[in-house]
Amino acid sequence: MDYAERARIDAEDTEEEAVLFDVETALCRFLRGKDGAAMVLRDIRRIVESRPARARTIP
Fold it and tell me: Does 56 score more than 60 pLDDT?
């Protein structure tokens, strides 16, 4: 594995981690009673739609 390929993989991992963090934050706000379910679902949809297509396919 060369440097460019490793950098590409690291960038993809970082993007996936950012998506997961944002979704986790939205869910925590719901569980703490700070946001309603509709608001959380709207936020999650916004988070996912704002990311590149490759980050939308989180296993």
Answer: no
- 22's CB contacts (< 8 A; 6+ apart) are 47
The model's pTM: 0.62
Task: Tell me how far apart the alpha carbons of residues 21 and 17 are, in angstroms, rounded to a whole number.
Answer: 6
Q: How far apart are CA 31 and CA 5, in angstroms?
A: 39
CB 11 within 8 A of CB 49: no
Q: What residue type is assigned to position 29 of the chain? A: R
What is the rounded CA–CA span in Å between residue 36 and residue 13?
30
Is the confidence at residue 30, as pLDDT, over 60? yes
The answer to whether 23 and 51 are in contact (CB under 8 A) is no
